């Protein structure tokens, strides 16, 4: 269909200028590739668990909207992810939706959202989409918090919301606890601790959500093997959760997602075993990467590892070489000045990691 000039003019006059100026979030066509670019689990669920779920699908009423009663799902999530009994929980269609809901409920147009930078890019995107102003406070050269700059930004901009991702994506590190505490104490509004990768570390702020009045913990099941379900949860004081819940779209958790979650989380030991294997694979991969000349490997508390390659080689050359050999990773060069010639590699199976290493050693 050909769009006439007049029709195009209507589009240009109608769509917000700031939306016209950006591109849609890029997602690679990964068919046929070894996927080491999106921090997914490389392991699928056992066949018998799929069969058990399949036997229950025909009991679902797909002609009806999902039930508003999430008591069973809430109990299972709280019990299996160590959420304090007295805390409230809000579910989202992925943690991305919850990030939107947080900003929608807290920010008037022009209000400020702050995060260290580089960090999860969707913090800034969601702020923009919801007419808030995003301020990224640069990390130090070794990806640590620049505490004074953070405190100065808080003092100057009075942010409604501060996002702190720990472990941080894409750097993989966890920031100093006392520095984070200083930020929380200085914050005039809400602080979101994004623990998307918490399953791969023992570090968590979850026990503190009933003790510190202005923090909520955000998590997702995407990194532990359930990315296809698109499910996240936000935990904390009910006064916060009740207000944010007001902007949640109705029926945002579909019946299939709920069924899968209940059955799979009731067998969470399977996911836990897969997580342990990913950690073993990561340890082995990091050890081998460090043996390769001209590659710097940064410490990681996630299911990925950040690397930096020599400028003479360049990250693009490595990215293209791997892609030509059927392997996808994330080229971060150009996304932030601190990430020049950086590549982020998700942890795959031992076989996938070995194929990656084989190609890298030929460059």
From TrEMBL:
EC number(s) from the headed UniProt entry: 2.6.1.9
Sorted UniProt keywords: Amino-acid biosynthesis, Aminotransferase, Histidine biosynthesis, Pyridoxal phosphate, Transferase
Pathway(s) the chain acts in: Amino-acid biosynthesis; L-histidine biosynthesis; L-histidine from 5-phospho-alpha-D-ribose 1-diphosphate: step 7/9
Entry cofactors: pyridoxal 5'-phosphate
Keyword match Transferase: yes
Reaction catalyzed: L-histidinol phosphate + 2-oxoglutarate = 3-(imidazol-4-yl)-2-oxopropyl phosphate + L-glutamate
Main EC class the enzyme belongs to: transferase
GO BP annotations, alphabetical order: L-histidine biosynthetic process
Ranges of residues in domain Aminotransferase class I/classII large: 34-359
GO molecular-function terms, A-Z: histidinol-phosphate transaminase activity; pyridoxal phosphate binding
Keyword match Manganese: no
Any matching Pfam family: Aminotran_1_2
Subunit structure comment from the entry: Homodimer.
UniProt-recorded name of the protein: Histidinol-phosphate aminotransferase
Species this chain originates from: Candidatus Kinetoplastidibacterium desouzai TCC079E
